[in-house]
Amino acid sequence: MLTQTLTLPDDPEELRSFTARLLAEVKAQAILIEKLRHQLAGHRAHRFGASSETAEQLQLALETSEIAAAAMTARMRLPDIEEKDKPKRRPIPDHIPRMEVELSPGAEACADCGGRLRRIGEDVTEELEYVPGRFIVNRIVRPRLTCACCERFVQVPLPSRPIERGRPGPGLLAQVLVSKYADHLPLYRQSQIFDREGLDLDRSTLADWVGKTTALLEPLADAIGRHVLSAEAIFADDTPVQMLAPGTGKTQTARLWTYARNERPWGGDAPPAAWYRFSGDRRGQHPKDHLARFRGWMHADGYAGFEDLYRSGTIREVACMAHVRRKFVDIHRSQGSPIAEEAMGRIAQLYAVEKEARGSPADRRAELRRAHAAPVFDDLEAWLVTCPPEVPSL
């Protein structure tokens, strides 16, 4: 209507109707503008705000400042100032090996009177040191024997190795994988570290080791998957990762799917575990294939690809309240909305009930939720219905 040439009617009733429609459209446009502003604020916060990357950069900046301050203090030789509330230094863990160095005066007689010195105690100062990792070479020697009578040849067969005709031992392979995947140390940097030790291990060699070790670990990953899918309830989520698209020189967004089992909050005996699957895209067929054998409850976000799983009836949805709360947090941060703030407070009451229920048996948790969480949730739903329509849709 707003894009059309306005011709006002002469009839008062038509004019009032026209004005009402015009006001309704202006109101709808205002709500849309507010929603777009909220989305824009969210995108700006995601790109320029306190993301994990910028938080990490802040940590690096703080580290640099702390290092510079420590260096300045050392140069100035400032005396140590005791602070009243200074936290106590934690002791070095007992499992760290101790190497004792005793500093003895050397002389057994007193320098003043010549009397014999006797030990009355000792002062111990512990200094944490680092001994760089070292490489060793296992020389597997297999003597070749022959019978003096019948000339029979005897030799112990070579034990199986992680990589046939390869040089790395299992400890070195574990070090490469832990450094890459747990410590986020790329293979080219590991190659540079090995080069400082005089070892020529280029990135392609390390990549070959990683690939072959991955194949060795596949049965273990399958066992973890069977353990996770045997649970009554699991958690599911996916994370976007950038992958090089073969032959294009470009990247595409792939997915890392995570399925987790954790029964510790309710005192379960099964060990926690996470099972990871990879796919080149986010089609719903992937979780459908991954969870083909699963029967039970699944705690996940509102990803549309999970809907077919729920419709099958074999998997029951447990919606994620954290994702609901996150929408209100985003609105409150971008607009300072009192309605969003109240919603966050109401959701906090649900969190308080869950905190009290954590670790309790199933019947006790159900009792607490029926008595305390259900009324809060019902009130939250009824209250949201009464909120003004000007609030941007979530």
UniProtKB/TrEMBL annotation:
Residues 108-151 form the Transposase IS66 zinc-finger binding domain. NCBIfam families: transpos_IS66. It holds the Pfam family zf-IS66. Residues 36-101 form the Transposase TnpC homeodomain domain. This is IS66 family transposase. Residues 166-386 form the Transposase IS66 central domain.
